[in-house]
Write a structure and sequence with these properties.
Largest sheet: 6 strands, mixed
Distance between the termini: 21 Å
Number of helices: 12
Radius of gyration: 20 Å
Oligomer: single chain
Shape: globular
Strand content: 5-15%
């Protein structure tokens, strides 16, 4: 039983050898309100560093932010590598790996994680080709192996994850979005696994996750041609869960992701996690084994206080108050 439900090893917290972190990825101080509450980082967001005098300091390219108030339980992964359009370089990947470790091992586990970009018009532009050009064949292979490992850790986070695609998500950028459970997109967004146009193939999980998302035949067509898709086409083929018109602030997909996260937030967190576990593990095996996995996951929720609370709330005709126990 335990072998079927085991988690992938927790990623080792690794920071760049160039030095320590020396900044914060921050949003604009002017935060509009919606529905009578502040939405942290909603609209006009940008990243700016607070440089220190430390020699060799590394600018923050990815950061976590916990939402508060009624949105308590939602955590955002903020990507803000402005100069390189969130390209997957050494520092970006190292910092993302460290944040995934925090999400695995933090004292208060979030209920939903939203991946969003603070770079206007870009979710993630994919590989950092300038860095990649300096690598020899072996270094390139090792780096992509590490990138594949990072995407696997994102995919195996126990809580639901949502990618908010408000702009370009190409190559490794779309692979990052595919590693998330759910995706929202603006109609104006551009997505594609374009590696074959660069003499490569998707190497960070895209060749495996895209067929599992849209079907093998369609995935082959998209990967063989390196085609780019807009939000409407991505919605039609099931690549994204929701797609919307872009707004003036340029964060319509994020707003939709936040709305989706709020629908998940009130549900029993252990039940949601076990449902994710059952689906993720079950789709990897035959139906008989999948049913056994479902049974084992179901057994994990039976003794919880949340299950008893759910039954009591139903009988008493009131909203349940889940605490994650």
């Amino acid at each position: 039983m335990s072998s079927l439900l085991r988690r992938l090893p927790t990623p080792r917290l690794v920071l760049s050898s160039r030095g320590r972190l020396a900044g914060r990825c921050r949003s604009d101080d002017r935060v509009p309100r919606q529905g009578g509450r502040v939405l942290a980082g909603f609209g006009g967001a940008h990243c700016r560093s607070e440089h220190t005098a430390a020699a060799g300091a590394v600018e923050v390219e990815v950061e976590l932010r916990k939402l508060r108030g009624e949105d308590d339980g939602i955590v955002e992964v903020l990507m803000c590598r402005h100069k390189a359009r969130n390209a997957l370089g050494h520092v970006f990947v190292s910092q993302m790996r460290a944040l995934m470790s925090t999400l695995y091992n933090g004292d208060s586990a979030p209920r939903v994680v939203v991946f969003r970009s603070l770079v206007p018009g870009v979710f993630c532009a994919g590989a950092d080709l300038k860095e990649r050009a300096l690598m020899d064949d072996q270094q390139s292979d090792l780096f992509v192996h590490g990138l594949r490992d990072l995407m696997t850790h994102i995919a195996s986070l126990p809580m639901p994850t949502i990618a908010a695609i408000d702009g370009v998500a190409l190559g490794g950028g779309l692979e990052l979005a595919l590693a998330c459970d759910l995706r929202t997109a603006a109609y104006s967004a551009q997505m594609g696994l374009i590696e074959t146009t660069r003499g490569l193939l998707p190497g960070a999980g895209g060749s495996q996750r895209l067929p599992r998302t849209v079907g093998v035949t369609l995935a082959k067509e998209l990967i063989f041609t390196g085609r780019r898709l807009g939000g409407r086409a991505a919605l039609a083929m099931g690549l994204v869960n929701r797609a919307v018109d872009q707004n003036e602030a340029g964060d319509a997909a994020y707003s939709e992701a936040l709305s989706l996260a709020r629908e998940i937030l009130p549900q029993a967190p252990i039940a949601v996690r076990m449902a994710k576990e059952a689906m993720n593990r079950g789709t990897e095996v035959d139906i008989t084994s999948a049913m056994a996995i479902e049974r084992m996951c179901y057994a994990q929720v039976i003794p919880t206080r949340d299950r008893r609370e759910g039954m009591a709330a139903f009988i008493e005709k009131r909203p349940p108050r889940y605490i994650g126990e």
